[in-house]
């Protein structure tokens, strides 16, 4: 079975599940597709007691897909560019300092807190796991997922000042999270070349290199769009920016996701829209990338549901995952308190910012992809199950209730920040 056939099957399933969601469940696409795929997979498991043909076919498809490579090396660039393209750059600039602190300090603090709490949790459950492996888990679960966050917040009705903080954080903290993950991964695997200098080099090359590449790509795209007026070619130019930029980033060993975020913000910014795009071009560019965003999101969350097939159904692992949910939420809340207090008065934060950012900071596919990158000696099966449980809870429970939480807190708001 070649990749075209596998892709065709995934698109077919996405279309069918998307149709069922709109007709029956009427949930946001991210939530609906994840739920329907999980129900479908559970149905396949049940059917396998009588005929395992469908189960074997589904497992074969999953076995042919390297989820980590597909997401981190291919899909993520398109999704982040599309998300950044529709982010208000002016408002993001106003909130740049809290977004920067949330995406750096917040991730580091959360990594340490979750790693430490998980270490003692597993010890209570009778699982002896090295502390450094727990820190590794803390690193992969701490970043909020821009794909999940962007999909949910569009319908949540969050105040704009708060929405830009959550979206801005989620766009940038995955790059920081990956660097932290790779750093701890090097320590955990006992790499011979692991040192402070190598960590700094990794950070500078990955992060700053990615940001610089994104700026160059964004400027070049703006330049070429300004020189012509043909919406067909201009849409293709934006597509070439993402595809070529991803190849260049991979070759230079810089962060492709961060490059795409910066390029997307520049292409979608007011300057480009006003001086380099006609109204017709702007409309076509927006609709094209909205379609790309929806299609890849649908395929991605179908894959998340199907990833159940690679899990080891160990009861203790599942208990650990369920108990890790409140730990992850509490640690995120604590990691946000200091940044919110520092910036709340200067930037006029809305009430209950800490609570809403905690509940609205969803985990998603990036965490699963990083967990799949662990080795067997790093307790891959254990942490994959825990990660999957947290991600599914995040998407289905937090995603379904964040809108209600925002509405309730806005009604009960008394003008003071919730801590």
TrEMBL record:
Residues 13-405 form the Cation/H+ exchanger transmembrane domain. This is Sodium:proton antiporter. The chain crosses the membrane at residues 6-24, 31-50, 70-87, 99-122, 128-150, 171-190, 202-225, 237-268, 288-310, 317-336, 356-375, 382-401. The lineage of its organism: Bacteria, Pseudomonadati, Bacteroidota, Flavobacteriia, Flavobacteriales. Keywords: Antiport, Cell membrane, Ion transport, Membrane, Sodium, Sodium transport, Transmembrane, Transmembrane helix, Transport. Belongs to the monovalent cation:proton antiporter 1 (CPA1) transporter (TC 2.A.36) family. It is a multi-pass membrane protein. It is found in: Cell membrane.
């Amino acid at each position: 079975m070649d990749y075209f056939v596998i892709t065709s099957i995934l698109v077919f399933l996405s279309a069918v599940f998307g149709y069922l969601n709109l007709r029956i469940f009427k949930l946001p696409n991210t939530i609906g597709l994840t739920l329907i795929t999980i129900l479908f997979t559970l149905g396949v498991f049940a059917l396998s007691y009588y005929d395992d043909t469908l189960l074997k076919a589904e497992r074969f498809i999953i076995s042919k897909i390297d989820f980590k490579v597909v997401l981190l090396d291919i899909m993520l660039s398109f999704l982040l560019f599309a998300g950044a393209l529709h982010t208000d750059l002016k408002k993001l600039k106003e909130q740049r300092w809290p977004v920067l602190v949330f995406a750096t300090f917040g991730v580091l603090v959360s990594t340490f807190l979750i790693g430490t709490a998980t270490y003692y949790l597993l010890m209570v459950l009778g699982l002896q796991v090295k502390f450094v492996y727990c820190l590794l888990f803390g690193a992969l679960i701490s970043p909020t997922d821009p794909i999940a966050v962007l999909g949910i917040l569009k319908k949540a009705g969050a105040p704009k000042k708060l929405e830009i903080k959550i979206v801005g954080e989620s766009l940038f903290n995955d790059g920081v999270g990956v660097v932290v993950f790779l750093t701890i991964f090097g320590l955990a695997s006992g790499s011979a070349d692991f040192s402070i200098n190598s960590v700094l080099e990794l950070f500078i090359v990955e992060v700053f290199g990615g940001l610089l590449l994104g700026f160059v790509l964004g400027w070049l795209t703006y330049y070429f769009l300004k020189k012509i007026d043909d919406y067909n070619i201009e849409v293709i130019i934006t597509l070439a920016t993402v595809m070529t930029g991803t190849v260049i980033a991979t070759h230079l060993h810089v962060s492709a996701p961060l490059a795409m975020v910066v390029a997307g913000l520049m292409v979608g910014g007011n300057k480009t829209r006003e001086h380099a795009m006609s109204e017709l071009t702007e409309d076509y560019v927006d609709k094209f990338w909205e379609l790309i965003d929806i299609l890849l999101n649908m395929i991605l969350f179908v894959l998340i549901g199907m990833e159940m097939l690679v899990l080891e159904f160990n009861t203790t692992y599942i208990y650990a995952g369920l108990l890790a949910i409140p730990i992850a939420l509490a640690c995120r809340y604590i990691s946000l308190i200091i940044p919110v207090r520092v910036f709340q008065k200067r930037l006029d934060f809305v009430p209950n910012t800490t609570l809403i950012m905690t509940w609205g900071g969803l985990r998603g596919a990036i965490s699963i992809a990083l967990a799949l990158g662990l080795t067997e000696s790093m307790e891959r099966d254990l942490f994959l199950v825990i990660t999957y449980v947290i991600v599914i809870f995040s998407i289905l429970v937090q995603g379904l209730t964040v809108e209600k939480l925002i509405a309730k807190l806005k009604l009960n708001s008394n003008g003071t920040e919730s801590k």
